Structures are given as structure tokens and as C-alpha cells.
């Protein structure tokens, strides 16, 4: 089964951490990713640019409306993702629970992927 781990954090909180603290968390992140690669759980990883660089598209009266910036004002923004392969939700939660941004205020949303069409 594949699970998407969507990593969220309040960008202003993250930016408020010292550079030393951010560097430490990112070093731990590198080790975490190496670990899930070695255990063969890793499928893909991606880091997103800040939400301030987002472009949003929606339709209004059947016409596309394009807006600079994120879709909605939210407390946390998605900063990246990991796609993992594992035996089930319990294992996915165990893997997600080791993500290094959790102790500094991060949140991880875990969702099972639908089978490919």
C-alpha cells in the first residue's frame, strides 16, 4: 500500500527558528530519508517552495480565475511530501511519527493512495 505523508508547518514559526535549529532539523531530515530508503519504504519525496510563491486557479462562472498566492489563509502550509510503500496504516503512522519537523511544531497528514487507474 502507498501512503502520502503531507508535511505541514506554520511558515512564520519555521522562519522564526534560529538558523542553527533549522539546520539541525534538516540534517535529521536527511538521515530520516536515508533510513526510509534503506528500509525500502521510500517511493518519492518533494520539498515545496514557500506558499507565498504559489499560484491558485479556480473557476468562477465557468471562467478560470488565477490568483498569486495560496488558496486560503491557513495556520499551516504544506512544505513537502513523502510517498511511501508499507504494509498498512499502522506502519505508515510509525514512519511518519519519526519526521523531524514534528518536535518543532510540524504536522503530518497521512493518507492512503487510491489504486492507479
Structure report:
- With 117 residues, the chain is α+β, with helices and mostly antiparallel strands.
- The chain has one domain: Dimeric alpha+beta barrel (Alpha-Beta Plaits), CATH 3.30.70.1060.
- It contains three helices and six strands; from the N terminus they run E-H-H-E-E-E-E-H-E.
- The chain has a four-stranded antiparallel sheet with strand order 2-5-1-6. It has a two-stranded antiparallel ribbon with strand order 3-4.
- Strand 3 and strand 4 form a beta hairpin.
- The longest helix has 20 residues.
- It is flat.
- The relative contact order is 0.33.
**What's the main sheet like?**
4 strands, antiparallel
Number of strands: 6
- Class by SSE composition: alpha+beta
CATH class: Alpha Beta
Write the layout of secondary structure elements.
Blueprint: E1 2-9, H1 11-16, H2 19-38, E2 42-47, E3 55-60, E4 63-68, E5 77-85, H3 89-96, E6 107-112
Antiparallel strand pairs: 1-5, 1-6, 2-5, 3-4
Compact summary:
The protein has 117 residues and is α+β, with helices and mostly antiparallel strands.
Structural descriptors:
single chain, 117 residues, alpha+beta, Alpha-Beta Plaits, four-stranded antiparallel beta sheet, two-stranded antiparallel sheet, 3 helices, 6 strands
Amino acid at each position: 500500500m502507498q501512503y502520502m505523508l503531507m508535511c505541514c508547518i506554520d511558515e512564520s514559526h519555521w522562519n522564526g527558528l534560529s538558523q542553527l535549529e533549522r539546520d539541525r532539523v534538516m540534517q535529521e531530515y536527511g538521515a530520516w530519508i536515508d533510513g526510509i530508503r534503506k528500509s525500502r519504504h521510500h517511493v518519492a519525496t518533494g520539498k515545496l517552495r514557500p506558499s507565498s510563491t504559489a499560484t491558485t486557479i479556480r473557476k468562477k462562472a465557468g471562467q478560470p480565475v488565477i490568483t498569486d498566492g495560496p488558496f486560503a489563509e491557513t495556520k499551516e502550509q504544506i512544505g513537502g511530501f513523502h510517498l511511501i510503500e508499507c504494509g498498512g496504516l499502522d506502519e505508515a503512522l510509525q514512519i511518519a511519527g519519526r519526521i523531524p519537523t514534528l518536535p518543532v511544531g510540524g504536522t503530518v497528514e497521512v493518507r492512503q493512495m487510491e489504486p492507479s487507474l
